[in-house]
Amino acid sequence: MTLLRHSHICALPATRPGLAISWPNIHFTFYDPLFLTDPLTDAHALQQSTKEAAAYMRARPYGGLFVVCMDNLSGSAKEKVDAILAHAKFRQAIPLTGMAGEILPMKAPGHSVTPIRTNFV
Q1: pLDDT below 70 — which residues of the chain?
Q2: How far apart are CA 12 and CA 23, in angstroms?
Q3: Is the overall model pTM greater than 0.85, yes or no?
Q4: CA–CA separation, 44 and 56 (whole Å)
Q5: For residue 121, is it within any domain?
Q6: 73-81 own/partner pairs: CB under 8 Å, 24+ apart
Q7: Which of 8, 10, 26, 73 could share a disulfide with 77, CB 3.0–4.6 Å?
């Protein structure tokens, strides 16, 4: 008796130039994401990354998400993003902004905590 016919849960994350991929091939869409990682200013570069993402995703048995953070786009890439994604037959599922920033190091609010050793007798 086989309990798991196809076990893809242990699929390792992959990286391609400009793309980060975590795709274990399961029905839960949020576990099958492909991220556009590089800031892009050129529409042609965005189109190439989108084509590669679409080819990767269409070769898999389950759907997933192609994550494009609008903060990473500028110039002609930002102007033509809607047309490029529509041409690849992607549609917006979740708006995503606010992923870029220079916020580190962060201080923890409140009191500082000092660990101490105690003996219970």
Answers
A1: 1-14, 96-101, 103, 106, 108-109, 111, 113, 121
A2: 8
A3: no
A4: 18
A5: no
A6: 73/39, 73/40, 73/41, 73/46, 74/39, 74/40, 74/41, 75/41, 75/42, 75/43, 76/41, 76/42, 76/43, 77/40, 77/41, 77/42, 77/43, 77/45, 77/46, 79/43, 80/43, 80/46, 80/47, 81/46
A7: 73
Report the mean per-residue pLDDT for the chain. 80
Domain extent, residue 92, equals: 11-116
The Cα 24–Cα 64 span in angstroms is 10
Asked whether residue 47 is domain-assigned, the answer is: yes
99 contacts 71 by C-beta, under 8 angstroms: yes
